[in-house]
Task: inverse folding
């Protein structure tokens, strides 16, 4: 249970960092500072729900798309989040194309790096035993 909670926190935090970086880099991407937690939670929930469905559809119908499922899931997550939250605004075709790429890369890096900092003591205990 603790592992699931830690994994969820890391996933939401990685997505939040990705969304903030996209907001900093893309002029057509804006997020209200006070709603970042809600936006990240809604976005993560949509991505978590839609990803298995997209994987199943891609394997069955378009196997070549299976490598891009994460990017499509992020795009769907952004569309859904912008519909359900007033805190996220995305405008312009270029922004809609680049935002999923930026969020994917940043969330991937955060997913690799954050555990090293957040769970440093736990990792040290595992190495010692």
Result:
């Amino acid at each position: 249970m603790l592992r699931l909670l830690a994994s969820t926190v890391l996933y939401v935090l990685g997505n939040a960092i990705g969304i903030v970086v996209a907001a900093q880099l893309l002029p057509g991407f804006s997020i209200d500072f006070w709603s970042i937690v809600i936006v990240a939670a809604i976005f993560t929930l949509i991505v978590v729900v839609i990803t298995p469905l997209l994987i199943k559809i891609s394997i069955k119908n378009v196997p070549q798309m299976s490598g891009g499922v994460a990017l499509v899931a992020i795009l769907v997550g952004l569309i859904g989040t912008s519909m359900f939250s007033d805190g996220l605004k995305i405008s312009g075709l270029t922004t809609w194309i680049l935002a999923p790429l930026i969020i994917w890369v940043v969330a991937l890096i955060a997913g690799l790096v954050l555990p090293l900092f957040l769970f440093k003591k736990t990792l040290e205990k595992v190495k010692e035993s």
The chain has five helices and two strands. The CA atoms of residues 13 and 87 lie 17 Å apart. The chain has one domain: 2-128. Residues 2-128 form one domain.
